## 1
Amino acid sequence: MTALRLGSLFDGIGVFPLAAVCCGIEPVWASEIEKAPISITKRHFPDMAHLGDVTKLDGREIPPVHITGTTMKRPGFQKMLTAIEAGYISAVFVKDLSRLGRNYIEVGKLTEKFFLLHDIRLVAVSDGVDSDEGEDDFTPFKNIMKNISHLGKVSNDFSLFGRF
């Protein structure tokens, strides 16, 4: 069997590669622009290539991988969904909604159908989302804007909106 290889977009301090290594997946490259997180990731993963700003990458030049944060088929993510279905998990906490996935349609299905079906509390800390606090009609819009931003289609500065 071919070993899975990982590319980490918006890598931060390398938590996605760390989780991947724990699952037997090889982290091949990362994309991050902040110097401090890059130095942390380089210390923990000295052989992983750092490709810089995602908006300046040419996909034809990136080493091929099996997994990126843009897919909902991440092994650890799938294990979480299985654990939810089995009743082992009652709450999911994330930094923001984009950490669930980069496909806003799939994230919407997850948050508005799957989590409700399994009575899962969702907390997205920086988005101010807590499903135990009731419905928020603005949450799907925030999800779309975060995902567009993370895919490099618009500026990542949402200060104009005040809530981002």
## 2
Amino acid sequence: MSLFVLYFGTDRRYDHVAHHEILLGPRYRGLLDDIFIHKRLAGGFLLYLHRPTAADPSLALRAATAGTCWRRCHIWAARPTGSARPGPYGMRLCYPGQATQRSPQEVVMLAPTKATSRTPRASTLSPRQRLRRRVLLGAILALEVVMLGYAGASVMVAMALMAPNPSPRPTTQTPAAWGLLYQTVSFPSRSDHLLIRGWLMPGLLPDGKQTVQRTIIVVHGIPGNRSSSPVLHVSAALVQHGFAVLAVDLRGHGESAPAPRSLGEFEQRDILGAVDFLQTGALPFPLLGRPRVIGGWGMSLGASTLLLAAAAEPAMRAIVSDSAFADAAALVRSRSEQQGLPSWLLPGAVPAGQLLYGVNYDQARSVAVVAQIAPRPILFIHGTADSSVPIANMDQLVAAAS
């Protein structure tokens, strides 16, 4: 048996080659798998030992730590102290199976430098450390599950509150059922240009002539549309008193374009589009001219939406607000409590809705803008037995408008 040591030099660099590198043939694969994967050493395993300190003790670093080896070879490491010059690894290993209690074999490993030090493997941790690690990992996993669950629930609530209604209530009757002359009209909403549909009904003067000089935009509530009986009842009364009526379907309702439900933030654009239509659109009664005065009559959502629109559009000269809510976010919280929805879901549902649909309930606070309508008149109407929109909403609006 011979050992050949070759000393060589080259005219180029090989940076991918480590400081110490051993090249082994395929016959060593099974042996290395036993050592590094299965954690066992063969009984006849032979180790080559290199101990330069046998000839020169000054090569050893100070404060190295020694251990013992019995059946399996354990390597103990410690950081040298008082040494300014880090050194390479040096090992003194035993033959497995040869160590006995009377004659243990020493194993010495010089400590790694700071740059090559690594976190101890899980197998070297104490039982208490392993328990702490499991508890920490379990807590992190549980927190991730809770956060994902909360995010999913928030998205579901946001969809229930704001997603476009897949099956809005159909139109069930027309003004003809109330003996009213009308024409179906359509126009784009202001800014985002969604298709809005409605009915234009001329007013009747005492002499029987028709007129559109004073036109009232009548807006339904949730979940109705322009064919709802309250809308047609009010429309018929206005027409009989000489007011023309433009009854509209808000977006996402009736025959208008589907859209997210924003409780007034986006719906006010439909009212503003109605104003634009009356001022510049192609009216179905050209011989009657254009409106000289435009007002609004809204119910619930329609009333809040009219207040938001009137604050932004001075062409609306007067508003009748029937059961308007003052703050969309407060209304959602109140309705959620009535329906048994956990209140802790709303803080996640509101931003989820903003990400999914762009809805921001803070932009649907008619109480914050109602004062801008002055000095134009507002008539507030509210029922004391209203459980969906409590009468306290009217008190807030009146106080803010005063």
## 3
Amino acid sequence: MSDIIQRRAKHAWEQVSHAKTEQAINEGKYQTWAQKLPTLILQCGILPTLAFLKAKGAEQDKVGKACSEWLLKPDGGASLIPWTRNESDIDESDIIELLQNEDSDVYRAAQAEAIRYAVWLKRFAEGYLEGEDAAGSDQDEGGTQP
């Protein structure tokens, strides 16, 4: 079991490291949304959260894509989720449609795995990325829940 935990952590680390080096990504916003991800999934569910993040902006979409990518990764989250479709046929842009068509057991498994992954993403973002300044540019986001 520790192997999947290590793979989960490694994937989250790679995503945060990439966000730090990508010029188009605001580190502070990415960190803020990575911090919010576990709570959003718990409060709203995985499907509304991913749809919300996709609609918000570059940093939010990047956080959502990291989670989606993990859920579909054959040696990652997909190995713990009993998808009814072959996950290798699906890319992360289709995960919203995929989740809509799955039964509740698969949905719950995907949501539980998304939360476990989101905690790692949050930890690494908090420790590695530069946070937003005290004024916070997040105030103009127009809300934080879908």
